[in-house]
Write a structure and sequence with these properties.
Elements: E1 11-17, H1 22-33, E2 40-46, H2 52-59, E3 66-70, H3 77-87, E4 92-95, E5 101-102, H4 106-116, E6 120-131, E7 135-137, H5 143-150, E8 162-164, H6 165-170, H7 183-191, E9 196-209, H8 216-236, H9 238-256, E10 261-264, E11 267-270
Parallel strand pairs: 1-2, 1-4, 2-3, 6-9
Antiparallel strand pairs: 4-8, 5-9, 6-7, 6-8, 10-11
Helix pairs in contact: 1-2, 5-9, 7-8, 8-9
């Protein structure tokens, strides 16, 4: 373990790494060390113990806020995340993935929000996707809207989240391995019962979208886990699901309400249903 604690830091930045691209890891670490908010510990947990290249990268940083731990054997992402929670001494836990980049004011803005809003247990933010896809992911801002959208999809980006540690500890909530790689969605589903959510409407993280990093098998596991979690949330919070479906009906009406119906052989169809979609060569 590298570095030492002199009192309790306000924030613990938690980053599990596993055979991370060396360039991506350096960009990740540099972005955390550039934060305008400085009262934090940065716990990096290596779950690829045979990868000594990662040791050299992390140990090249002479910053005592970095605490570097290495698992003796590979234990998987959910157990690694839980180990990071147990190691953390901060009041707030900043979740941050090993290949993403934090904007300089990320910690400052999220700490300020949690300090000023004691009934919020999880605060996220918008994210700039880059790489294979480029757009700004804008999730709903307020608690009710977030919970409505959680009945359909993960409405808080995990790598953007800051969690009040006491909410996890007081309710005995942790990541659940059986839902990996959708362990974050399951975590939000459980936290819906006990706390409020918020997304800061600013881009605070650059999220690296690399389609080559996700195998077909992982995508299949993700889809299965996602459907299972979605069903549990919908069954537990039917009113949120009803609100989501009502909202989607309004969207569909706005999109298609003025599209004329046409008659084809005694059958009615929306005009767009009859227009073929063709691909134009790039």
């Amino acid at each position: 373990m590298k570095g030492g604690l002199f009192g309790m830091p306000k924030v613990s930045v938690l980053t599990p790494i596993y055979n991370t691209n060396p360039l991506y890891l350096r960009e990740c670490i540099d972005s955390v060390l550039r934060q305008t908010f400085t009262d934090f510990e940065f716990i990096i947990l290596n779950d690829s113990p045979e990868n000594t290249d990662l040791d050299e990268i992390v140990e090249s940083y002479l910053d005592n806020r970095i605490k570097y731990i290495k698992n003796n054997t590979n234990i998987g992402i959910s157990k690694s995340r839980n180990k990071l929670i147990d190691l953390a001494t901060g009041e707030y836990l900043a979740i941050f993935d090993h290949d993403d980049i934090s904007r300089n004011t990320r910690l400052e803005e999220q700490v300020r929000f949690l300090d000023n809003n004691p009934y919020v247990g999880v605060v996220g933010a918008w994210a700039q996707w880059f790489g294979a896809r480029n757009f700004i992911r804008k999730n709903p801002e307020y608690d009710t809207d977030i919970k409505i959208y959680l009945t359909d999809r993960c409405a808080i980006m995990h790598t953007c989240a800051m969690i009040r540690k006491s909410v996890l500890m007081n309710n005995n909530i942790r990541y659940e391995e059986q839902y990996s790689p959708a362990e974050d969605y399951r975590l939000w589903g459980r936290l819906m019962h006990v706390t409020n959510f918020h997304n800061i409407p600013n881009v605070l993280v650059d999220y690296r979208c690399d389609t080559n990093n996700t195998s077909h098998r992982q995508k299949t596991k993700m889809n299965i886990a996602h459907k299972s979690i979605q069903m549990q949330i919908c069954n537990t919070f039917p009113m949120y699901r009803m609100a989501f479906e009502q909202n989607m009906r309004k969207v569909r009406f706005r999109l298609f309400g003025k599209i004329p119906l046409i008659k084809i052989k005694n059958k009615w169809a929306l005009l767009f249903d009859c227009i073929p979609i063709i691909k134009i060569k790039d």
